[in-house]
Write a structure and sequence with these properties.
The complex is a heterodimer of chains A (126) and B (260).
Chain A: H1 8-13, H2 17-20, E1 34-40, E2 48-54, H3 58-69, E3 77-82, H4 109-125
Antiparallel strand pairs in A: 1-2, 1-3
Chain B: H1 3-28, H2 37-62, H3 69-74, H4 98-120, H5 126-154, H6 158-176, H7 185-190, H8 197-213, H9 240-247, H10 249-253
The chains are: A alpha+beta (126), B mainly alpha (260).
Chain lengths: 126, 260
């Protein structure tokens, strides 16, 4: 059964059924490149990677990132970086980061806990 | 509040509210149809801001003994609306529609909005000054969004530059209709409610002319262009009656429905 849309926007634009399965190769410029988005939530803090946007230029990437990633919470600044400008290790090189349980002395857990204890002591005193 | 002061404020609130309601509605017609997902979200977030200003402005009118915001927004007679023709045009209409027109309208409209809110920050009508302070940041983003799109399309390829330029030229007379002087300009100015449409228009012309000039687009001499007037006195474009009928359809069918 053919359903006729009651949505005025759809009716106006005359979407035709043959368009739904229409496929052809992408033309140059049709698929925009991606930009990596970094958000700074407070002044003086680090900008943290929050995701990507598709955009035809860095400025438009900023305009899109603002809506994609800053609608909740606070933001003081956004960065965008073209994804293809990022140098990355290869996925198959993941093993080079493996650490072994014997080298636990390299982990800074002990120091973190120490700081916490010191802070707690101070609060108790005060 | 003296009677002339009240009338002047009312007229200003109605035209601003109607402009924002209709502009927000037209922009929202792109929901799900925008050129790309991210842009769909960005434009419709702008539409949402605009509908929000309309609601706040109708609220102010409601506090001045006008009807409730739903009735003001959806149930008045077409002649009672005071929006300019620019905001009334549909997004697709045998050539005048399309995204180039949407962006040209967005550019002209939001530059005017930003300057209007800026002038209203010192308004003697306190509720408007407060809303202006809040709206400034959002509308600054609207202008940023419009500017980057125009820059990209005007500096894109031959086709994008030509289409964007043509859309700007076609839309310019409609945009000048924003500044149609109302019946209370002197009171608005003397009572320090709002500096007036002439002041706004000259600031706006400086801004949009300078921006477009930086992209090698020259608008025609403003004295040679016939602005599309009438909206501020209730005379609207051919698209308007149908639009208002459609917008109020649900509320008329179900008067208890929550419209906002």
């Amino acid at each position: 059964m053919k359903v006729v849309s009651l949505d005025p926007r759809v009716a106006r634009l005359e979407f035709r059924e043959e368009h739904w399965h229409h496929q052809r190769p992408l033309r140059k410029g049709e698929q925009w490149p991606t930009y990596e988005v970094f958000q700074m939530k407070k002044r003086g803090t680090q900008a943290v990677h929050v995701g990507i946007v598709h955009a035809p230029s860095p400025e438009i990437a900023l305009a899109f990132a603002k809506e994609q990633y800053t609608r909740r919470g606070t933001t003081v600044r956004l960065w965008v970086v073209p994804s293809d400008q990022i140098y990355s290790t290869a996925p198959e090189d993941e093993v080079i980061f493996a650490t072994t349980p014997e080298k636990i002395h390299r982990e800074p857990f002990a120091y973190k806990v120490k700081e916490k204890i010191e802070r707690y002591k101070k609060i108790r005193k005060a | 509040m003296t009677a002339p002061y009240q009338s002047a404020v009312r007229e200003l609130l109605f035209k601003m509210a109607d402009d924002n309601l209709i502009m927000g509605h037209r922009n929202s017609e792109w929901v799900g149809l925008g050129p790309i997902l991210e842009e769909d979200i960005a434009l419709n977030s702008i539409a949402q801001d605009q509908t929000g200003y309309a609601w706040r402005l109708y609220q102010m009118l409601h506090q001045m003994q006008e009807a409730d915001p739903d009735s003001l927004g959806f149930l008045r007679q077409p002649r009672e609306y005071k929006c300019c023709h620019l905001v009334e045009y549909p997004i697709v209409d045998n050539g005048i529609g399309e995204y180039d027109f949407t962006l040209a309208r967005h550019f002209f409209f939001d530059h005017a909005q930003l300057l209007r809110w800026d002038l209203l920050r010192t308004s003697s009508f306190e509720p408007l000054a407060q809303l202006a302070a809040k709206a400034m940041g959002e509308v600054r983003y609207h202008v940023f969004h419009a500017n980057v799109w125009l820059k990209n399309l005007l500096e894109g390829n031959e086709e994008s530059r030509q289409r964007m330029t043509e859309a700007l030229m076609r839309t310019f007379p409609l945009a000048l209709g924003i500044f149609e002087p109302g019946p209370h300009e002197a009171v608005l100015n003397n009572e320090k409610i709002f500096a007036g449409e002439d002041m706004l228009k000259s600031q706006w012309l400086d801004r949009v002319t300078a921006f477009l000039h930086s992209l090698d687009v020259e608008l025609p001499d403003v004295t040679s262009v016939e602005p599309v007037y009438g909206g501020r006195y209730g005379y609207h474009s051919d698209h308007f009656d149908n639009l208002i009928a459609e917008m109020g359809e649900v509320l008329r069918a179900y008067p208890d429905a929550q419209a906002w």
